[in-house]
Amino acid sequence: MSVIETNALTKTYNGKGGISDVTLSVGEGIIYGFLGPNGSGKSTFVRTLLGLLQPTSGEGYILGEPIGTTKSREQVGYLPELFRYPDWLTGRQLLESHAELCKIPVRQRKKRIEEVVELVGMTGRENGRISGFSKGMSQRIGLACAILNDPKVVFLDEPTSALDPIGRKDVRDLMVYLRDQGKTVFLNSHLLYEVESVCDHVSIVHQGDMVAQGPWRELMVTEAKVEVVTDQPITVPMPAFVTEYQHKNERDRTRMIFQLENESDIPNIIHYLSSHQTPIYEVKPITPHLEDVFLYWVNQKKENMYVDNQ
Ligand SMILES: Nc1ncnc2c1ncn2[C@@H]1O[C@H](COP(=O)(O)OP(=O)(O)OP(=O)(O)O)[C@@H](O)[C@H]1O
Ligand SMILES: [Mg+2]
């Protein structure tokens, strides 16, 4: 079943900005990455899904309920971007008021608050005033609010923007924990590595348009590159499947970098070199820079638009 579904969902601000024509379907129990640079429409999209903004056109459903309805929000948790909490409250008081809003039965509140405080790594600090919290602590307490009502779907809008590397790792672990509990996590992020490290499925957005979507592995489609270490530069001609070749001599070793038509050419180049008496000391695939993957899809979309417009 689709947990989140949209059909040409569009939200623009007086015809400008926002996000246009997004059609996607998010399955149950996955971490879905909504990836794009600043201003690409990620927050607009999530706020529209949550009914905080009125769509300009198109439609959307959460757990089968049309967006904008109370029912569609019942089993949803949300960590807004750069949210400011009433800072005269303590962390615990914020969670208590949240628990009341979510109608968590009074008898269960204390236990549930303790659980989420632990999940976000704030145990022992929840009784401090929010005004004295660091950015990272505020973000953690925000995460605790987002998961307090044990939602089936959690929307996290840039959940690690204020966190240090340890905090980022904690949030990653929390997302994986939620997924392992069968929850669906919708993650807005402009950080490619963050999306790559946890997301099962990804959409790439750019200037309000979705430029690609699919399993992350399938989006990593730049050509294959491999580094092979030998003891002297090769003199044999390059086979046709090598699209680019560079080498660097380092004392008694030569590092050769082959750009290949595709990944399945990696065994071919090894075979080719060994059949030409080239000793191989090391073979290392070179993973593409994530920025390259992003730019690839942005350019791909532009090219298609150009073709469509002809
Ligand atoms: N309330 C608003 N009124 C007018 N334009 C807006 C409004 N909110 C957002 N926009 C515009 O819509 C576009 C998308 O903004 P949005 O905040 O959704 O992007 P984002 O991907 O979340 O960016 P960031 O990574 O900076 O959070 C931007 O061009 C922005 O200027
Ligand atoms: Mg945003």
- Please provide the count of β strands: 14
> What structural category do the secondary elements indicate?
alpha/beta
Would you identify the CATH H-level superfamily of the largest domain?
P-loop containing nucleotide triphosphate hydrolases
Small molecules bound: adenosine-5'-triphosphate, magnesium ion
Query: Overall mean pLDDT score?
Result: 90
CATH class of the largest domain: Alpha Beta
CATH-defined fold name of the largest domain: Rossmann fold
Counted by DSSP, the helix tally is 10
Query: Strand share of the residues?
Result: 25-35%
Tell me the overall shape: elongated
Second rung of CATH, namely the architecture of the largest domain: 3-Layer(aba) Sandwich
Domain count: the total is 2
Specify the biggest β-sheet: 6 strands, mixed
**Distance separating the two termini:** 39 Å
How would you write the strand order of the largest sheet? 6-7-8-3-9-10
Q: H/E series, N to C?
A: EEEHEEHEHHHEHEHEEHEEEHEH
The helix fraction, in percent, is: 25-40%
Radius of gyration: 24 Å
